[in-house]
Write a structure and sequence with these properties.
Elements lengths: L3 H15 L4 E6 L12 H5 L4 E7 L2 E6 L3 E6 L4 E6 L11 E7 L4 E6 L5 E6 L23 H8 L6 H6 L9 H11 L12 H20 L33 H6 L7 E5 L2 E5 L7
Antiparallel strand pairs: 1-6, 2-3, 3-4, 4-8, 5-7, 6-7, 9-10
This protein binds a DNA duplex through loops.
Length: 282
DNA sequence: AGTGTCGCCTGAATGC
DNA sequence: TGCATTCAGGCGACAC
């Protein structure tokens, strides 16, 4: 499940092999993923150069020389696999989009569950396009801070864990990093989002940044559905404190030596949350 | 506007 | 062994 660090890692892995190269053609092997592919995608991009790659929230953006941007959201199970020789690639199950570069290399978009999305837009539409207009600030940018988080959550009665998954509050945080950041900042996932103290918003904002940065430094987290574009594995999953660790000892408590507590799993908004009942108080 | 629920989709895990 | 059921979850659509 690619969240911000995974998409950032994919972007960094792809960029050296794609930037500056030109599109020969794009072959679609089905009409849609979560949404239909953009009409005439191949025709609109044929012959254009990829100027650079970037990321916004969990979207990977390809900036083209003709002023267009292709945005890919990998959903739950999306993968991008680089191919040195596209002619030698025989499409596998769930290879939905094949992007051929003029030098013979290319990339394959594989998405078993098809929760992913591909958009094509003009460069100046990135802030107004329906998929992007409501996105909150990038957590690793200067636009994000404790006070900003506090302002955006003012009056919100929803649990803080649920609010962190809302992409309009802060962009790019998903289920793994929401639980990890709340644990790191000592905040209970069921705490009402609008009712943290100023110090707690500061700690939470700092923890979100820290956990995301550490995950990026580790190449992201490899779970059931995510691999890096070179086929290699991220390894931040070995640094999880609470995610998928129900019943195990809380590492913070364990380090303290005295208090023994086990990580608990609850369901909020239909999704699993993990927390330490000792470290994280309402 | 905020909040909650549903549905999309497949593979892995579990149950009988 | 094999078939059926359950679960995972980002996000758009929708109802209230």
């Amino acid at each position: 499940m690619p969240e911000l660090p995974e998409v950032e890692t994919i972007k960094n892995g792809l960029a050296p092999f794609m930037e500056g190269r030109a599109i020969e053609k794009i072959v679609l092997r089905r009409p849609d993923l979560r949404l239909p592919f953009p009409p005439n995608l191949s025709k609109k991009l044929k012959g254009t150069r990829i100027d650079h790659l970037s990321r916004r929230a969990k979207y990977l953006l390809f900036h083209f020389s003709n002023g267009k941007i292709m945005a890919i959201h990998l959903g739950m199970s999306g993968r991008i696999i680089l191919q040195a020789d596209m002619a030698a690639h025989s499409p596998a199950a769930h290879d939905h989009m094949l992007l051929y570069l003029t030098d013979g290399s290319g990339m394959v978009l594989n998405d078993a569950r098809r929760f992913g999305m591909v958009y094509l837009m003009e460069a100046d539409e990135v802030s107004t396009h329906p998929g992007f207009a409501a996105l909150g600030p990038e957590p690793l940018s200067n636009e994000f801070s404790g006070p900003v988080l506090q302002e955006r959550l003012k009056g919100r009665k929803t649990p803080i864990k649920v609010a962190l998954l809302d992409q309009s509050i802060v962009a790019g945080v998903g289920n793994i990093y929401a639980s990890e950041a709340l644990h790191q900042s000592g905040i209970h996932p069921q705490k009402e989002a609008g009712k943290l103290t100023g110090a707690q918003y500061e700690r939470l904002a700092a923890a979100i940044r820290d956990v995301l940065q550490r995950a990026i430094a580790s190449g992201g987290s490899t779970l059931k559905d995510y691999r890096r574009s070179n086929g290699g594995l991220g390894y931040f999953q070995h640094s999880f404190s609470v995610y998928e660790k129900a019943g195990q000892a809380c590492p913070v408590c364990a380090a303290g030596g005295k208090v023994k507590s086990a990580i608990r799993k609850i369901v909020q908004g239909g999704r699993a949350s993990y927390y330490c009942p000792v470290c994280q108080k309402k």
